[in-house]
Amino acid sequence: MRSDPPPATAIIGAGIAGLACARALDAAGLPVTLFDKARGAGGRMSSRRLPEAVLDLGAQFFSVRDPAFRRAAEAWRKAGCIAPWPTSLWSAQEGRWARHEDDLERLCGAPRMSAVTRHLAEGLTLLPGARIERLEGSAGAWQLVDEHGAHHGPFARVVISAPSPQAHPLVAPHDATLAEACERVIQRPCWAAWALFDAPLPALPGVDADWQAVRLADPRLRFVTRNQLKPGRQAQGESLSLLANLEWSEARLEDSPETVVEALLEAFQQALPEGVRLPAPSALGAHRWRYAQPDVFATGEAVNRDYRLSASGLALCGDGWRGPRVEDAWLSGHHLGEALVADAT
């Protein structure tokens, strides 16, 4: 007797949550296809590659708390795509710098943050440059329609790992409960700027010469990292990533990248000790993350607290359903993947 083929799953969004879900399905031998509007996997763990430098403009590092995520991180470490970073972390307020010390291990993709998502995507079916605009069909027979009108499917289940404002128009015509859940999750924007320098940064009194990252108490700027001091990037020149505060980003969402990077670089200059001046930058830029970080988390039943799964085969996962950390996004996708495997078997 022939058995029915295993249910095929489509995942919209190849960030850390979508990839974690896909890996759980693939490990169980279930067919899965990833769709992403970008040129490849990564999401907010993607990196920008310039001729002079590689820059992380989304997540700068991640920490590990959950046992399941720890096992995944150990596998990534053995694969050589992550390493400890930053090991020289500082805090700055009104020109006074102090070493930030705690017992939390922080890890970074090597040689760039996107090394993690590239590793997770290996061996999976991924369609890059595919912006899915709507879903058609019903339970067990979903079709994905992209911006060019091409149809993909049928799929028994569709997982949407994109931020809730982007997931909402996809699920709203088909599932009022999922649409309402999306409306309860607020995603905050964030500007991320970068600056390249031909000369190294000046020494700071009482601070490690090779300081790697600093947290700031400034209404404009919250975090600065030195990209050339990340694992595997020692050959590139001085380059900074500057992450803006969420409130400031929201108020200046429509500002030009030139205005944004000028303001953030000025904020960093003001955070330096008195008398220390930045060298002239050789190149500047900024990237706007319209949906960077969840601010209000949706709540639900204990067995379904970090994802949403409907009887129609539509599902939602991502950091908005659990928390803002990389670990949260991975756990959301991983737990959903486990639930889909259990449902299929």
| Spatial order of strands in the largest sheet | 8-7-16-17-18-15-19
What is the makeup of the main sheet? Answer: 7 strands, mixed
Q: What class, by secondary structure content? A: alpha+beta
Number of helices: 8
Written as H for each helix and E for each strand, in order along the chain, the element string is EHEEEEHEEEEHEEEEEHHEEEEHHEEEH
* Global mean pLDDT: 94
Give the N-terminus to C-terminus distance in angstroms: 18 Å
Q: Evaluate the radius of gyration.
A: 21 Å
How large a portion of the residues is in β-strands, by DSSP E? 25-35%
Detail the poorly predicted runs: none
Which range best describes the helical content: under 10%, 10-25%, 25-40%, 40-55%, 55-70% or over 70%? 25-40%
The count of DSSP E runs of length 2 or more, i.e. the number of strands, is 21
Shape: elongated
Describe the structure.
- By secondary structure, the chain is of the alpha+beta class.
- It has helices at 16-27, 67-78, 114-121, 164-171, 176-183, 246-251, 257-271, 326-344; strands at 9-12, 32-35, 47-49, 54-56, 62-63, 82-84, 89-93, 96-99, 106-109, 125-127, 132-138, 141-146, 151-155, 157-160, 186-197, 213-216, 221-226, 239-244, 281-296, 308-309, 314-316.
- The strands form five sheets. The chain has a seven-stranded mixed sheet with strand order 8-7-16-17-18-15-19. A six-stranded mixed sheet has the order 10-2-1-14-21-20. A three-stranded antiparallel sheet has the order 5-9-6.
- Helix 1 runs parallel beside helix 3, helix 1 packs parallel to helix 8 and helix 4 (164-171) packs antiparallel against helix 5.
- The mean pLDDT is 94.
